[in-house]
Design goal:
The complex is a heterodimer of chains A (775) and B (176). With 775 residues, chain A is an all-alpha fold. Chain A has 36 helices and four strands. Chain A has helices spanning 3-9, 16-39, 46-64, 67-71, 75-95, 99-105, 108-119, 122-131, 134-149, 151-159, 161-183, 197-217, 225-228, 237-269, 278-283, 286-292, 315-321, 325-346, 355-374, 378-381, 387-395, 410-425, 432-452, 457-462, 464-472, 485-490, 495-498, 526-530, 563-581, 585-598, 602-631, 639-647, 651-669, 673-684, 704-731, 736-762; strands at 478-482, 499-500, 503-504, 536-540. Chain A has a two-stranded antiparallel ribbon with strand order 1-4. A two-stranded antiparallel ribbon of chain A has the order 2-3. The two termini of chain A are 50 Å apart. Chain B has 176 residues and is an alpha+beta fold. Chain B has two helices and eight strands. Chain B has helices spanning 2-26, 151-174; strands spanning 37-44, 47-54, 61-71, 82-89, 97-101, 112-118, 122-131, 136-145. Chain B has a four-stranded antiparallel sheet, with no helix packed on it. Chain B is elongated and about 75 Å long. In chain B, 35% of the residues are buried. Classes of the chains: A mainly alpha (775), B alpha+beta (176).
């Protein structure tokens, strides 16, 4: 092989987004095709799978193979790229009849809740039917082909990557629209005579012939770009253009004329190409097959478990049922906490050099939110602060009930606001000494509270970290719940609540059959081990769905009647924005300017900032939204009731902001742990892990994907918040117009917060717990 | 009920298919002309050197400089040259940025590329030094790099797509 050819064949541009899209499409199709094939193997044969894979491969080849880089040097290669997008990929995709497999391949909840209501809407169906009518589809193809081959348009696409992308999108979409009436993929019903397809394909071929003849026989180079770029293998620009014209002419004509003959023959001789085998016809008629397909099915009516058991097999399930599972997770964290305390008190008082300056504020926070995103409240599950409770049980009475007046979240709200303020006011992130004392304080408080009071009072009523986890885990994909409610109705012992054989029941008094969602659940797994029927476990739920109803929740009551929980949510949501915004350049400068103008100290300014951001602003914003929302409520509802009901809709957006913020610190500064650990162990005289490389104690340059990921977290939080608000407005059992009136003010508030979040992530963020100049 | 399911399937499936397959096109595929715009070209003896830069127009920030060396007689690319790229603000050679252009850094392996980071907007002097087994040559040219656009201008689809979802959702609900 020549070196030139070898170099060409190695020129595969790396496009992870395109690759990911292709893989997702192929996976969805394969999933759906396999499920459908089990019911009707005659219709869902291997050819369909091959066609879909071929169609996707054609798109990938066109956009991310050596064709892409060479297309800017040779018009002929560029033509191949466009032919793949117009003539190859679309018919292959339609031949695969992708509709049912793609729908069936989606997760059931996504399919039934989102996709089917959307795609079955008249507003989408009507334009789609018009677009795919031959009288529209042909002009669409002609317009796309001719307009993009006008020299100024083609040059624009070659000069500007965004326009080049638009050109490719136009070609692919025009191809899909054009080939739809020709292939008529199952289960589409023809709305026009097949005879129409004959002039349809002939006209398409004629326009293709005229356009390719213009390219082939032109005496001058139509696209000056190709006269400026170096010529490969001394092929002149005019010869290249002629070759491109021939490529468009011959394979293009074949693509149009082959189906023309096939359709013509079928019309003339009445060949039934889709004749089902008699046996297959007998087994299940097409209609029977179709309506048994669970494409639009909502909830399974089959008897059986309410929830699937995601960890029902394998070592993970056994691990979670193991009695010492939680302790196994807690002990390593206890050791880490001890190291943080020791280093914070005795180590160097520079946060980038100290375990207490790095581990809690960069790694632990980031991992907590990622754990909440991926699983659930893993942070409380592995929390080492609750270990002293066991000791306290031996040494202290542990018999009093938590004071009735404090049995709410108000104390936690105050502590949380205090913590958010103190974090900035005393620069806790920059003080290993303070960090160590906060950790000690946590152990002491947990020991004292749980030593005197029953029922995990520290977790439920005091711990600010716990409250953070409880609220955010309402958006997590897993919850501790029962698999089958039928088993619980026949259960007489209620061991999940009372305990059994030395295994404690739920100390937070969450009765599993009536528990709903993760609020107040520490994932301690006591109920999992106590249940004699093995009927409790980690089960999957649609993220955010725990917020869409207002059922009575064991240990919590109705969320709409818990103003204290709503206040906690408001502080956490607005706190997420305040906490992130407090670290970005423009806000820091504003604080400095305002402090100078008002003659305030830095701490005084931070106090005012937090008073505004997490007390007055939430109060004002929620009150205004509630007032506006109440005007649409029928019958009239109390202001507090409206505020309480809708504040929960803000949780997903707040979680998105926490994820964006803590994720940023984790991914730009995760390496800081290496030199700090080396230093710590060297100071203790343990091991020889080498000289600390303090360059690692600085922030890494923010990778390009990170900002996109931050925006994605905010986007998803935004959408989920809006949907939650929408669902909550429906739970008020009002008419549609009323729903809109009630929901609009809250959607405005959510949108405003979303844009604040977007603005924040685009600002330069201070790098905390890291060295300013890399060493 | 089954009939409703059947009707729903038939009417919704084509729309789903076109949305999902169309989404392939809607993602940011590599569509740019690889190497960017031709900035300078020079023939020296039997060799032709062409330099491309990307983005077009040139902006402060990450810049790709791709160099294509070919034999004038045969038109074949020369793949074993050693190429260095030097960039300095006009009249301030003390701030020169030097980088080797390699094939590994180029997505089109006929080229050799270097990725630079222009720290600010200004006029920049580019020097491309090519050393071949039998010859060596250099090429000089000047380009003005403009201010980079704010991040949000290049990333707007990343925070605007939820509004498309909202519009589609509103449509679907309105028709119910």
């Amino acid at each position: 092989m020549s070196a030139t050819l070898d170099a060409c064949l190695r020129s595969w541009p790396w496009d992870p987004w395109l690759l990911a899209t292709c893989l997702v499409s192929v996976t969805l199709y394969y999933r759906g095709w396999r499920a459908l094939g089990r019911r009707d193997p005659w219709r869902w044969h291997g050819g369909r799978l091959v066609a879909f894979f071929g169609g996707v491969a054609a798109v990938y080849l066109a956009l991310a193979s050596p064709i892409e880089p060479l297309a800017s040097l040779l018009l002929g290669v560029h033509m191949v790229q466009h032919l793949l997008l117009i003539m190859v990929a679309p018919p292959l995709v339609w031949l695969s009849a992708p509709m049912f497999p793609l729908l069936r391949g989606l997760p059931r909840s996504v399919r039934t809740l989102w996709v089917v209501p959307l795609v079955s809407s008249r507003e989408l169906r009507r334009p789609f039917h018009r677009l795919t009518h031959p009288l529209t589809a042909l002009p669409v193809l002609i317009a796309a082909s001719w307009l993009w081959h006008v020299p100024p348009a083609y040059e624009l696409a070659l000069r500007s990557p965004p326009w080049h992308y638009v050109q490719h999108a136009c070609f692919l979409l025009a191809g899909l629209v054009f080939w739809y009436p020709v292939v008529r993929p199952f289960p589409s019903r023809p709305r026009w005579s097949a005879w129409v397809l004959l002039p349809y394909l002939i006209l398409a071929d004629i326009q293709n012939t005229v356009l390719s003849a213009l390219l082939t026989f032109s005496a001058r180079v139509l696209y000056p770009h190709y006269t400026q770029v170096p010529r490969i293998a001394n092929l002149s620009p005019l010869d290249d253009q002629t070759a491109a014209g021939v490529l468009m002419w011959v394979p293009g004509s074949v693509a149009f004329l082959a189906p023309l003959f096939a359709i013509g023959l079928r019309l003339l001789y009445g060949a039934e190409t889709e004749r089902r085998p008699r046996a297959a016809q007998k087994a299940n008629t097409p209609d029977r097959v179709i309506y048994h397909l669970p494409v639009l099915g909502s909830r399974s009516t089959r008897p059986g478990p309410r929830h699937a058991r995601p960890f029902a097999v394998g070592p993970l399930y056994r691990f979670f049922r193991w009695r010492h599972a939680r302790l196994t997770l807690q002990i390593p964290l206890l050791i880490v906490a001890a190291a943080v305390i020791y280093d914070g008190l005795c180590g160097p008082q520079a946060s980038p050099l100290n375990l207490a300056g790095v581990l809690p504020w960069i790694h632990w926070r980031g991992l907590v939110v990622l754990g909440l995103l991926a699983v659930g409240n893993l942070s409380c599950m592995a929390c080492p602060f609750t270990l002293p409770r066991r000791l306290a049980g031996h040494w202290l009475p542990q018999r009093w009930s938590w004071p009735r007046g404090l049995r709410s979240k108000w104390l936690a709200v105050a502590l949380l606001a205090l913590f958010l303020w103190a974090y900035e006011a005393f620069a806790l992130w920059d003080s290993p000494w303070w960090t160590a004392w906060i950790t000690i304080g946590y152990f002491a408080a947990a020991f004292a509270v749980d030593g005197f009071f029953r029922g995990a009072a520290f977790c439920k009523y005091v711990c600010p970290i716990g409250q953070f986890n409880f609220v955010q885990s309402l958006v997590s994909p897993f919850e501790v719940a029962v698999h089958d409610r039928q088993i619980c109705t026949s259960c007489r012992t209620k061991d999940c609540l009372r305990g059994r054989a030395g295994i404690p029941g739920c100390e937070l008094e969450l009765f599993q059959p009536r528990k709903s969602g993760n609020l107040d659940c520490t994932f301690c797994l006591d109920c999992v081990q106590a249940c004699p029927h093995a009927n409790v476990g980690l089960v999957a739920s649609l993220p955010g769905s725990q917020l869409w109803h207002d059922r009575l929740r064991s240990g919590v009551g109705r969320l709409s009647q818990r103003a204290d929980v709503a206040a906690l949510v408001a502080v956490l949501v607005f706190g997420s924005f305040a906490n992130a915004a407090g670290m970005v350049g423009p806000v820091v400068e504003w604080q400095q300017r305002t402090a100078a103008a008002l003659g305030l100290s830095a701490r005084g300014m931070i106090t005012i900032y937090y008073l505004l951001a997490i007390v007055l602003t939430p109060l004002g914003a929620v009150t205004l939204a509630s007032l506006a929302s109440r005007r649409g409520a029928q019958p009239p509802v109390a202001l507090l009731a409206v505020a309480t009901r809708y504040t929960y809709a803000l949780i997903p957006l707040g979680f998105g902001m926490w994820l964006a913020h803590y994720g940023f610190h984790l991914f730009t500064s995760y390496e800081t742990i290496v030199p700090v650990t080396q230093r710590f162990l060297a100071d203790l005289g343990l091991g020889n892990l080498g000289e600390p490389n303090w360059r690692c104690a600085c922030c890494l340059p923010s990778p390009a994907w990170l900002l996109r990921a931050e925006l994605l977290f905010l986007d998803l939080g935004f959408l989920l918040s809006l949907y939650t608000g929408y669902r909550l407005s429906f739970s008020a059992e009002s008419g549609r117009r009323q729903v809109v009136k009630e929901f609009l003010p809250w959607s405005a508030l959510i949108t405003l917060l979303f844009f604040v979040g977007v603005w924040v992530v685009f600002q330069p963020m201070q790098m905390r717990g890291t060295m300013a100049a890399g060493g | 009920m089954p009939n409703r399911f059947l009707r729903g399937c038939v009417v919704s499936a084509p729309v789903v298919a076109i949305l999902l397959t169309g989404s392939i096109a809607l993602l940011p595929a590599v569509a740019g002309a690889d190497g960017g715009a031709v900035r300078a070209s020079k023939q020296h003896g039997n060799y032709q050197v062409t330099v491309f830069t990307d983005p077009t127009p040139l902006l402060a920030g990450p810049v790709d400089v791709s160099v294509f060396v070919q034999d004038v007689g045969t038109g074949q690319p020369i793949l074993d040259g050693q190429i260095d790229v030097e960039v300095a603000p006009r009249g301030r050679s003390s701030e020169t940025i030097r980088l080797a252009a390699t094939r590994a850094a180029a997505s089109n392996k006929l080229f050799q590329a270097a990725q630079l980071d222009l720290p600010h907007a200004s006029w920049w002097t580019f020097a491309v030094i090519v050393r071949l087994p039998t010859d060596s040559m250099d090429l000089h040219f000047e380009l003005e790099a403009g201010d980079p656009p704010p991040n949000w201008r290049s990333l707007w689809p990343w925070f605007c797509w939820p509004f498309l979802v909202i519009a589609l959702f509103a449509l679907s609900r309105r028709s119910r």
